[in-house]
Every structure is written in C-alpha cells, then in structure tokens.
Amino acid sequence: MATGILPAGTRPAASEQAFFAAYRWCLNPMLTLRELLRHLAAEVQRYRAGAAEAWQTEERRINLYLFTCAIACTLDDYLAARPYSLAFVARRFPRARTAARAAEALLHAPHAALSRSAMARAAAWRGQWSACVDAVCDLLLGGSEAPFLAAVRALLPAAPGALGEAALCRRMRIPEAFRCQDLTHHDAAAMLDLCLPLLPAPDQPVAMIGPRTAGAYFAPLAAARLRSLGYARVSWITVRPKDGLSASESRAIRQALAARARLLVIDDHPNSGNTLRLLLNALRALGAQSSQIVAVLPGHPAVPAWPLPDETARGGQFRLLPPADRYQARLLATAPAARALAAANAASAGCAPTPSPWRAGAPPPRPTPPSPPPTPPSPRATPMVSRSASSAYSPWEAAW
Fold first, then answer.
1. Domains recognised in the chain with CATH numbers
2. What pTM, to 2 d.p., does this model score?
C-alpha cells in the first residue's frame, strides 16, 4: 500500500500519476447505484489485470470492498424505504408509537401494492449479492479472490434488469466511519477481537447486526473475521434504527433469536447514543434479552467512558476500542510516521524539512496546519502525508 509523503517541489512517479488518474471521478463521490455498479465492474477489470506494485493491489482490493458494501447498503436502504415515514412522531411522542406505525402502514399500502413485483426482483438480486459481500470481505482479510470474482461475474450483468430504474437512481450514503472518523477495516476486525471472550463456542450461532451506514461495512467484515476463526454459524444483517426495522429485517432477527444466537452490534462511535438505544429497544421488542446482546464501538478521545449506564444496568455488554488502538493511531505512532509528520509540519511552517525514508507518492490526506493557520500555499509545493499512509484507504475514501 502507499505509505509515503511527497516532499515539497517533488512530482510523483509516472506510475503513481497513471494509477491515480483513473480515479478522477472520485471528486464527486456521491454515486448512484448505477454508478457504483459501473465503477465496480471497472475496478474488477483493473484488479484482474494486476498491478506494478503491491500497494496498488492493496488499494484496489480495498476499493472492491468499498464498492461491494456500498451497493449492498444503498440497495438495503431502497428496499426498506417508505414514502411516508412517521418515525419522527414515534420518537417525539413515545406513547403514540403504535398509532404512528398503524397510520404509516395505511399510507404505505398503495405504494407497496404498486411496487411489489419490482421490489421482489430487487430483493431477490440483493439476496444473492450477500455472497459477493461475504467473498470480498474474505478477500480483504487475505482469502482467495476466486469466489468473489466468480460471484461478481455472475451477478453484475443481471443487475440493471433486476433492480429497475428507481433503484439504480438512488444515491449512496457516505459512511462517517471513513469520511470523518478515520476508521478502517482493520479497526472493524480489532473491535470484533475485543468481543471474543463474550461470544459462545465456535459451534454456536452468532448474528452480527450493523446499523447503517457504517454497519453495512463493519458487520459483514466482522462476520468474515469470525468465520476465519472457526465460527461456522455466523450471519449478519444491517438496519437503520431511526427509520424502524423493515418486515424482512425483523424476520431475520427473529430467526436468529429462535436459533438462540448471540447478537453482536457493531457500529462507528456514537454521538448521543440515541441510535444505539433505539436499536437495543427494537431488539428487545423482538424478544431479545439484554444479556444476549453485545455492542462494540470505537472509543473517542473526547468521550473516554461512553457506554450507556442504563443499558449496562439492564445487563447489556459493551466493548470500546481504545482510541490509541485504532489502526491509524498505531500507524502514526511509528518512528517513520513521526519523522514524516515532522518533516511535513516543518515544511508547511517554512522550515527546511528533514530527509524522510518514506516513498514518495499516494493520494492527498488532510494536512495538519500550524496555529494560527497560514495562507494555504499551492498544492504542488505542499508536502502531504497520504491518506493511504494514515488510514490505508483508497482515493475514493479520501474524497469523502
């Protein structure tokens, strides 16, 4: 992967310019489902063609993961969407929750009747797409590429006819975990590892539940991590708690509870905790006991002791990934990273940067300005620590 800085006045290597030139489209990262499918097909071709350097292969592997999960997340939102949502009424007036749900069902009935056949085709294709999500997560964790490439080759050509125009025009939501929290797939695996002492034996069922949007990327990856550790009965589902659980989502969770599965909720770090509390209440409404639920989240330096005391008192179990244990924090704590950051800060402050052993190149990161911030110099003269250096993520993610 790319792990270097571009010293002031230095142009990237020709191979790097050619590599990143293929991603000019990422300046507009709010892609429709149609664009996600098209870019995934192109990325698969680039991945199969091979790369001149190992970091380029890693960048493309990450892109395959991001595209595949974004397609699943966007389609899940489309299938769960309702033209009339009274969820805000239920949140504002808890006693009116039952009446609000009944009114919403009546308002939604005509739309459901008209779109039943189109939704059924899209839902069938989405059900098959889960195999692609599982396969790309296995690939990202070091597994074989063959299952993913075979699944994509079988499903991508059928997508336009199966999904329909309404679904293809829907735009993705950008996950805050990657856009502004600097989390990576390494952190999802690390969060899963924190929960291992709380999970049952490998022959017992575990159901991963990921609140969308970040959960659509974290839950299947955590499930893949569990499979790699020998857990044979692992499932995953993503939900959007603020919009309420759809019928298919509720059904999948009931099936997991009927199998006596341990429920493991994984998400990015919370703000108020309202989304997590809504999800926990929804799980209990479906029959889950608080003692069955484990929630794992990344910790935040501003809120070191976050877990909800009322949920802990009810028997809920929480695990937080310490901020210092995040992949980016561990990477930036290494000696080469410290030297590179010192060189970049010295150059931006007008001092001569010290020589750095890092390889030049990579997509631009968010620079660390001095205080007070100076007038930004021209991009060509500004040394930057790459996004790949800090979070091992792709040029598309850097645009988020």
1. 7-174 (no CATH), 175-333 (3.40.50), 334-399 (no CATH)
2. 0.80
